[in-house]
Amino acid sequence: MGNNNKSRIERLSLKKTRDIYFDKFRRNLRILRAGQDISAVELSKKIPLKNGKRCIDLEYGRANPTTEE
Predict the structure, then answer these.
(1) CA-to-CA distance for 45 and 34, rounded, in angstroms?
(2) Tally of CB atoms within 10 A around 63
(3) Which of 3, 17, 55, 64: disulfide with 40, CB 3.0–4.6 Å?
(4) How far apart are CA 45 and CA 60, in angstroms?
(5) What is the pTM assigned to this prediction?
(6) pLDDT tens digits, residue range 42-64?
(7) What does the radius of gyration of the chain's CA atoms come to, in whole angstroms?
(8) Residue 1 in this model has a pLDDT that exceeds 60
(9) What percent of the chain clears pLDDT 70, i.e. is strictly above it?
(10) Which CA distances in Å does 14 have to 9, 22, 48?
């Protein structure tokens, strides 16, 4: 296998791993909110999120979490 193909496969594997991580993060965020029966704004105050909109964007995949989140 050439270097270009190997690099491509490694990038695809990294992307797939990252996507799996982000999906788990989103599910956990929804579960946390549902289990605590709290709004996105309330949750954003308890964990380091800018605001409730950021929480919703993360839950619905419109944004990906940063390392701090």
Answers:
(1) 16
(2) 15
(3) 55
(4) 19
(5) 0.69
(6) 988 888 788 888 889 999 999 88
(7) 16
(8) no
(9) 96
(10) 9, 12, 26
27 is written with which tokens?
């599910």
Burial letters for 1-36: b for 16+ Cβ neighbours within 10 Å, e otherwise? Answer: eeeeeeeeeeeeeeeeeeeeeeeebbeebeeebeee
Size of the chain, expressed as the number of residues it contains = 69
Find all residues with CB under 8 Å of 1, minimum gap 6, and list them: 9
What HEC string does the chain produce?
Answer: CCHHHHHHHHHHHHHHHHHHHHHHHHHHHHHHHHHHCCCHHHHHHHCCCCCHHHHHHHHCCCCCCCCCC
